[in-house]
């Protein structure tokens, strides 16, 4: 928001003497009259209002005077050894409200303070009514008044909607309501800020049911988008005309609304338009057929318009933009995610088997069998080691056994 410039003047003619206020004087001298309050100098879009007058510094030694100013918004400054105060003390307020400004002045002859109240306001410059373009019967609709600047003090909102003969007056910038019948309805909000009143009006379509489709455009349209309501309304009419020419669908069944902001996008609504006679009305199946026809033509790049000579703009369904910011096809990402999950699962399984192999039933039995075999081998070795040694004389070579057998046969 715009800021307000505050200029608070203190007298420059400070001579030796005492510090005076408008309520007292030294040594019985006549009290000096305070100078007139200076008119505040407003910024380009804000104004300020001064309330009760501050104290006045009438005398003192300027070279030894300390001036402390608290502006009431969390900022305080000190001034010392000031030779002149002709331009006053300037401060910038960034918020609206009532601020208590205090001034403390000290010099060799004394001290004094003064207080003033500053009312900072900012005029309202623009009102934008935000609400959906299409809604269904008996569904709650939220309407919001968007203000610029956003902080302008206390406001009064006057709402006109439907067939109401009396407005709804609120202090809040949003309301909710319902429509009980089909058709086009006008909503108006009036915002009162001081002596100024601004308003905005929007139209909302109410139907039993409808279909919607998000549209996108070739990137060259963004180069010519000033992002203002008038341009969006004009482009909406151009897009609707190109859709009618490409599909043959009557214009009464379509509503195009270009959305604010960049990149440029729009909302296409397929409406169940009713003939003036009231005999023919599109059903839900008809709306589906119209939606499929529109999507088919958009996918074939059959919808386009000429923005200016030599500049052609293509209209796409939002998920089929010429240069999508995000890849919405799930095939590659799904396969990659599946492969990653498989690798993680296998690694986790190997880790669990290695870490807890003795606690798994099958592996535990195998481990017990291995331990039993190891114990048997150790016991056999220890048993063999415990046998008494056989003397060398008791051992016979195979040749000796054969000789003894031969001798026994001969005998």
UniProtKB/TrEMBL annotation:
One of its GO terms (biological process) is post-Golgi vesicle-mediated transport. Residues 21-45 are annotated as: Disordered. It comes from the Eukaryota. The chain crosses the membrane at residues 336-354. Keywords: Membrane, Receptor, Transmembrane, Transmembrane helix. This is VPS10 domain-containing receptor SorCS1. Gene3D superfamilies: Immunoglobulins. InterPro entries: Ig-like_fold, PKD_dom, PKD_dom_sf, VPS10-sortilin. Residues 70-114 form the PKD domain. Residues 29-43 have a biased composition (Pro residues). GO terms for cellular component: Golgi apparatus; membrane. Pfam families: PKD.
């Amino acid at each position: 928001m715009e800021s307000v410039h505050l200029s608070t003047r203190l007298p420059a003619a400070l001579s030796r003497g005492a510090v005076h206020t408008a309520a007292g004087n030294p040594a019985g001298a006549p009290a000096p009259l305070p100078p007139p309050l200076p008119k505040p100098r407003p910024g380009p879009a804000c104004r300020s209002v001064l309330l009760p007058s501050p104290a006045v510094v009438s005398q003192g030694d300027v070279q030894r005077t300390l001036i402390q100013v608290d502006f009431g918004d969390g900022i305080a400054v000190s001034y010392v050894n000031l030779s002149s105060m002709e331009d006053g003390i300037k401060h910038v307020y960034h918020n609206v409200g009532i601020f208590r400004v205090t001034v403390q002045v000290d010099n060799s002859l004394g001290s004094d303070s003064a207080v003033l109240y500053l009312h900072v306001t900012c005029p309202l410059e623009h009102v934008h009514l935000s609400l959906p373009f299409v809604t269904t019967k008996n569904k709650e609709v939220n309407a919001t008044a968007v203000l610029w600047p956003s902080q302008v003090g206390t406001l009064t909102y006057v709402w006109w909607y439907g067939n109401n003969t009396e407005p709804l007056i609120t202090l809040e910038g949003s309301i909710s309501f319902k429509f009980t019948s089909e058709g086009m309805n006008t909503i108006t909000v009036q915002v009162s800020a001081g002596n100024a009143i601004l308003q905005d009006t929007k139209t909302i379509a109410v139907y039993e049911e409808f279909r919607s489709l998000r549209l996108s455009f070739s990137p060259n349209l963004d180069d010519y988008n000033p992002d203002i309501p008038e341009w969006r309304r004009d482009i909406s009419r151009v897009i609707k005309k190109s859709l009618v020419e490409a599909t043959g669908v009557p214009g009464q069944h379509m509503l195009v609304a270009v959305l604010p902001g960049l990149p440029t996008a729009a909302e296409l609504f397929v409406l169940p338009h009713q003939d003036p006679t009231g005999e023919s009305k599109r059903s839900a199946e008809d709306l589906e057929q119209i939606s499929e026809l529109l999507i088919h033509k958009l996918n074939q790049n059959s919808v386009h318009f000429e923005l200016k000579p030599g500049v052609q703009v293509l209209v796409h369904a939002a998920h089929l933009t010429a240069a999508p910011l995000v890849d919405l096809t799930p095939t590659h990402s799904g396969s990659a995610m599946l492969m990653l999950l498989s690798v993680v699962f296998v690694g986790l399984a190997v880790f669990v088997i290695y870490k807890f192999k003795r606690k798994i039933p099958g592996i535990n039995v195998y481990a017990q069998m291995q331990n039993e075999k190891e114990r048997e081998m150790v016991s056999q070795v220890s048993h063999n080691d415990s046998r008494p040694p056989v003397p060398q004389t008791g051992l016979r070579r195979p040749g000796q056994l054969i000789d003894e057998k031969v001798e026994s046969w001969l005998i």
